[in-house]
């Protein structure tokens, strides 16, 4: 099984998938064979898949998995079995008649984003939160973290795209960012005026830091860490988590959701514009942001006349 997964991982890498995506796919595939106790090479039929779905939705022990997680696992299996059939590892595709679980309205609440008020509170929290890391300059960390938050919020780029963002990807003269996304697809995102000024502040400050730190001077990337010339995906995730509150845990994808949600509102539901900016392959992915959240619905009910 390990050999087959390694071969599949190499195939995914050749097709432009990131290491983070490949790991997620292979973990999902391993979860299926582990949970069902089916050994790879044995027969897998659609009934096995359906029983697995039922167990994830209504487990005998523990909490049920979110519909989005189950659908992600099914998508991982779908791609794997198509590849395995072409390679001759299986004789039939058990996923052929298996469809994603339809998402109920309540599932929309799992798409978490920041309100404008929450975003302002976050910026203030970042400004005032003490730095506990030994040897880390508080101002340098604040300026870097602030620039990261602004880019994530005002471009909607993925965390892997941010980690790989290079200085020459920024065209400050014409105010646009070149982003290499999933499948090595390249898209260009305009830089909003607010983001432009914040980015210029960071780049100017970064230039001064480069005069004192060798690894920064050699770095081709927009963002670096304390010891490395590139800030890793995990480093970005950890940084954002540190600014979380008990009410809301911050994740990189939350800022992508925020961008899409704010853009849907500012473009009056023009999902094609938002799809192109976010780099979504399918319009259905973008369409999720048109739906009102439970909070929106609750506010609408509260606005009813009080007689």
TrEMBL record:
Keyword terms, alphabetized: Cell cycle, Cell division, Chromosome partition, Cytoplasm, DNA integration, DNA recombination, DNA-binding
Key word Cell division present: yes
PROSITE patterns (alphabetical): CB, TYR_RECOMBINASE
Transmembrane segments: none
Predominant place of localization: cytoplasm
UniProt cross-references to CDD domains, sorted A to Z: DNA_BRE_C
SUPFAM superfamilies noted in UniProt: DNA breaking-rejoining enzymes
Subcellular location(s) of the protein: Cytoplasm
Presence of the UniProt keyword Transcription in the record: no
Gene3D superfamilies listed in its UniProt record: 1.10.150.130, Intergrase catalytic core
UniProt cross-references to InterPro entries, sorted A to Z: CB, DNA_brk_join_enz, Integrase-like_cat_sf, Integrase_catalytic, Integrase_recombinase_N, Integrase_SAM-like_N, Tyrosine_recombinase_XerCD
This protein's name: Tyrosine recombinase XerC
Gene: xerC_3
């Amino acid at each position: 099984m390990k050999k087959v997964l390694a071969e599949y991982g190499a195939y995914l890498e050749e097709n432009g998938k990131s290491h983070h995506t490949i790991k997620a796919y292979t973990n999902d595939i391993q979860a299926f064979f582990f949970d069902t106790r089916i050994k790879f090479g044995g027969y897998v039929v659609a009934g096995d898949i359906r029983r697995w779905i039922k167990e994830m939705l209504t487990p005998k022990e523990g909490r049920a998995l979110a519909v989005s997680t189950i659908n992600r696992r099914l998508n991982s299996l779908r791609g794997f079995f198509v590849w395995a059939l072409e390679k001759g590892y299986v004789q039939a595709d058990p996923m052929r008649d298996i469809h994603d679980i339809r998402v109920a309205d309540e599932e929309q609440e799992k798409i978490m984003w920041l309100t404008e008020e929450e975003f302002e509170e976050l910026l203030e929290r970042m400004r005032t939160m003490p730095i506990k890391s030994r040897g880390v300059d508080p101002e340098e960390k604040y300026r870097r973290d602030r620039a990261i938050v602004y880019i994530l919020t005002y471009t909607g780029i993925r965390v892997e795209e941010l980690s790989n963002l290079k200085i020459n990807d920024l065209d400050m003269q014409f105010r646009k960012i070149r982003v290499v996304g999933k499948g090595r697809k390249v898209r260009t995102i305009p830089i909003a005026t607010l983001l432009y000024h914040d980015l210029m502040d960071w780049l100017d400050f970064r230039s001064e830091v480069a005069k004192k730190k060798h690894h920064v001077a050699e770095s081709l990337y927009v963002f670096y860490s304390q010891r490395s010339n590139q800030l890793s995906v995990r480093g970005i995730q950890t940084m954002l988590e540190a600014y979380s509150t008990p009410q809301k845990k911050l994740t990189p994808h939350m800022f992508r959701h925020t961008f899409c949600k704010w853009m849907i509102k500012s473009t009056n539901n023009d999902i094609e514009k938002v799809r192109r900016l976010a780099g979504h392959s399918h319009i259905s992915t973008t369409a999720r942001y048109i739906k009102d959240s439970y909070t929106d619905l609750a506010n609408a009910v509260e606005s009813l006349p009080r007689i």
